[in-house]
Task: structure prediction
Amino acid sequence: MTSFARRQAAGFGLLVLVAAASMLAEPDRLFAFARGLADRPALFGGLLVAVYLVRPLFAWPTSLVAVLAGYAYGPVWGFPVALSGTTGSALLPFLVARYVGEGSGLVAWIGDSGERFFAATGDLRGMVASRLAPAPSDPVSAAAGLSGVSTPAFVLGTAVGGLASVRWELVAAAGAVAVALLAGPAYRAVAARR
Result:
């Protein structure tokens, strides 16, 4: 078996594991356990780091874990903790997708589509826009990894995009900013196809 085939098999196995874990893991148990640690910030911080590390495995939304940070640390300290944790957690599917690399079929299509998107927008602008758009975090992270987005652009774009995910008004404004960021590259891409 070639190195490429082993990486593809590992990626497929991980995808099956994530699907199974997401069906079996219940975040309610996590919240119940976390409530007991909320008055002990150091222990709660350790739990939060562990949860952020396994969050992609269970396909839990990043907002779910951010709520935990806000619950224990309040809005002033909870927001930067949640933003850091969310950015670091999103890095995991990005790096796994980069390791798995190009493939065939759907994986190749996602990688090719992402490459065209980021070629038109630029890595940083594309990452900020994709984080501002209401799209699931982990598929966006994996697509960026398959597309060859640079790690610094991924991290900075994820963090900047996460700054806008505080309230629905900001999400609506972020969506408008995402459209504005993509309007020029989209027009150029359409004009180039004519």
The two ends are 44 Å apart (CA to CA). The chain has one domain: 3-193. Residues 3-193 form one domain. The chain is about 85% helix and 0% strand.
